[in-house]
TrEMBL record:
Residues 6-223 form the Cytidylate kinase domain. It catalyses: dCMP + ATP = dCDP + ADP; CMP + ATP = CDP + ADP. The gene is cmk. This is Cytidylate kinase. HAMAP family: Cytidyl_kinase_type1.
Length: 229
């Protein structure tokens, strides 16, 4: 038996996280946060000394792919409906959501052997229930036969504004220019890499959320998914 798969791709900060969580809860589907997988690999590679601080230093693809294949990664639903991410028995949810780890993630994400080490894990998540798959290449590479595909984007400036607001709400300081520059650098790397670049699938619905709030995005996408279901 096959279960329905809805893919939501697009750059960081376009609103995919909130949207995917809400859709998964409304439809009672599992949620695949594929960005978390690359963040985990980036963090673990850095901690293992396989990813130097220096951007331009050549990375050790074979050993990072080996480390990736050895990780025991589990997505565990919490009572709140959110999903805890446990790696080798320890929750990493609080450690991976920052710009530094986002940068590590996008550096390991260019490595073909790392991407293929994560492929089966991602595809297996559709074996037991309907799935909302959040990422960059969900509709193009991981689930090319998905039932509904969305590419959610927003201008880099709108995404930087949202990030500043989130940090302020969390009581943290925020440097708009530094955040904007980091977002642009990550977009550039994600969109121009040779394997699985971030781009809309040919059959995806394209939605620009720059001028929309989270509720408008949710309603639009939910309606679109219903037309497909
Ligand atoms: O979505 P998130 O910001 O958590 O993703 C972190 C990084 O992981 C992205 O910038 C991208 O480089 C990489 N990624 C990817 N493919 C995915 C999901 C994320 O290459 N499907």
């Amino acid at each position: 038996m096959s279960f329905p798969v809805i893919t939501i791709d697009g750059p960081s900060g376009a609103g995919k996280g909130t949207l995917c969580l809400k859709l998964a809860q409304a439809l009672n589907y599992h949620l695949l946060d594929s960005g978390a997988l690359y963040r985990i690999v980036g963090l673990k590679a850095f901690e293992a000394g396989l990813l130097a601080d220096q951007e331009l230093t050549a990375v050790d693809e074979d050993n990072i792919a080996k480390l990736t294949a050895q990780l025991d990664i589990q997505f565990l639903p919490r009572d709140s409906g959110e999903v805890d991410i446990v790696v080798d028995g320890t929750s990493v949810a609080g450690e991976i959501r920052n710009e530094t780890v986002g940068g590590y993630a996008s550096r390991v994400a260019v490595l073909p052997k790392v991407r293929s080490a994560l492929l089966e894990l991602q595809q297996n998540m559709a074996n037991n229930s309907g799935l909302i798959a959040d990422g960059r290449d969900m509709g193009t590479v991981v689930f090319p036969n998905a039932d509904a595909k969305v590419y959610l984007t927003a201008s880099a400036e709108a995404r930087a504004d949202r990030r500043v607001e989130q940090l302020k709400q969390a009581g943290q300081s925020a440097d708009y220019e530094a955040i904007l520059s980091s977002i642009k650098q990550r977009d550039e790397r994600d969109e121009n890499r040779s394997v699985a670049p971030s781009k809309p699938a040919e059959d995806a619905l394209l939605l620009d959320s720059s001028q929309l709030d989270a509720e408008e995005v949710y309603r639009t996408i939910k309606k679109f998914c219903q037309t497909k279901g």
